[in-house]
Design brief:
This protein is an alpha+beta fold and 137 residues long. The chain has 2 helices and 10 strands. It has a 5-stranded mixed beta sheet, with no helix packed on it. A 5-stranded antiparallel beta sheet has the order 4-3-6-7-10. Strand 6 and strand 7 form a beta hairpin.
């Protein structure tokens, strides 16, 4: 039997997942990050993207997150997501609507401070990732 660690994925609304898994891939700001048992401890910021869970040697679950944080220890990964949805439930129409709103908000911030524009661009990127996840589902 393959070695496992505990994965817990929490959104503001509910606990979405809590069980032992073999591997999880998360959309960290630094890039896609694969986590196995005994990983070095760290806390990472998440961007909008898909979390992939592996159990029994295969991908068992895919969840879309809009952002958040992950705390990683050698025996546990806790994801605190701003918003999380199973990829199968991500609506392409909702993603397109969010993308249009985010792009409009970004355009409206043309003369704003750099940090305001950066946050607006993060929302655009998360909405694009949501649209891509909906297309791939």
């Amino acid at each position: 039997m393959a070695e496992t660690f505990d994965l817990e994925l929490v959104s503001p609304e509910r606990l979405l997942l809590s069980r032992p898994v073999e591997m999880v891939t998360i959309p960290a700001w630094e890039g896609e990050m694969g986590i196995l048992p005994k990983h070095s401890p760290m806390i990472v910021a998440l961007r909008g993207g898909v979390i992939r869970v592996q159990e029994g040697g295969r991908e068992s679950e895919r969840l879309f997150v809009m952002g958040g944080f992950a705390e990683i220890t050698p025996t546990r990964v806790t994801v605190l997501a701003d918003e999380a949805t199973p990829v199968a439930e991500v609506s392409r129409a909702e993603a397109e609507s969010r993308l249009a709103e985010a792009e409009s908000a970004y355009a409206a911030e043309a003369n704003s401070a750099p940090d305001v524009r950066e946050r607006a661009m993060e929302r655009v990127q998360a909405a694009r990732a949501m649209r891509d996840a909906a297309t791939a589902a």
